[in-house]
């Protein structure tokens, strides 16, 4: 899951970045509203955490521009402004939820999970096909009931595949979803991680979940 955090207060940015990464999310940071808007228009995110009081463009303006552009990504607004009018303003502008600072990180994670469970995002917390199961809260992968350890990147790639079964995903799509803007992604890094993942989940020679689509990318096929 890839999250965009639009926040200009360094202490909060550091707090969110550490906690979200530890929770298995890929995170991009924008320190002002205009940069956040540019990122959100250019890249598909699973959720956006958006401050209200931002340089260049405030959070209300950002969310209005996103909705005007047809971007339906769930937006959770984070702000110290706790009046009813402020909350109503944010929700009316197009936000999906509102969390007042300071907040407990556990509550933030719960609200993120709640937003991601909405039907339009198709994000159940447990995804299963045949003999494999992915638990996105416990961050566990099991095959035939046996737990198999995956790295953070491997888990994120597999989750992306399992949420998009039978769809051909290009290397660019995978890289954009799994690696943030600050991470270096070499030309073959996706292929390398797909190789790692295959060694762990495609253990039955008669059933390969990940298919290579030559010259394009990969497809996750539950039927093998």
Overview of this protein structure:
The protein is elongated and about 60 Å long. It folds into 2 domains: 2-121, Response regulator (Rossmann fold); 126-220, Winged helix-like DNA-binding domain superfamily/Winged helix DNA-binding domain (Arc Repressor Mutant, subunit A), CATH 1.10.10. The protein has 224 residues and is an alpha/beta fold. It contains 8 helices and 12 strands. The chain has helices at residues 10-22, 33-42, 59-68, 84-93, 105-116, 152-162, 171-178, 189-201; strands at residues 2-6, 26-30, 47-51, 75-79, 97-100, 126-129, 132-135, 140-143, 146-148, 168-170, 210-213, 217-220. It is 39% helix and 22% strand. The relative contact order is 0.11.
SSE diagram, text form:
Elements: E1 2-6, H1 10-22, E2 26-30, H2 33-42, E3 47-51, H3 59-68, E4 75-79, H4 84-93, E5 97-100, H5 105-116, E6 126-129, E7 132-135, E8 140-143, E9 146-148, H6 152-162, E10 168-170, H7 171-178, H8 189-201, E11 210-213, E12 217-220
Parallel strand pairs: 1-2, 1-3, 3-4, 4-5
Antiparallel strand pairs: 6-7, 7-8, 8-9, 10-12, 11-12
Q: Rg to the nearest angstrom?
A: 18 Å
Strand order of the largest sheet: 2-1-3-4-5
Mean of pLDDT: 85
User: Number of helical segments?
Assistant: 8
Q: Give the biggest sheet.
A: 5 strands, parallel
Q: What fraction of residues sit in β-strands?
A: 15-25%
Termini separation (Å)? 25 Å
Number of distinct beta strands: 12
- Counting helices, strands and paired strands, the structural category is alpha/beta
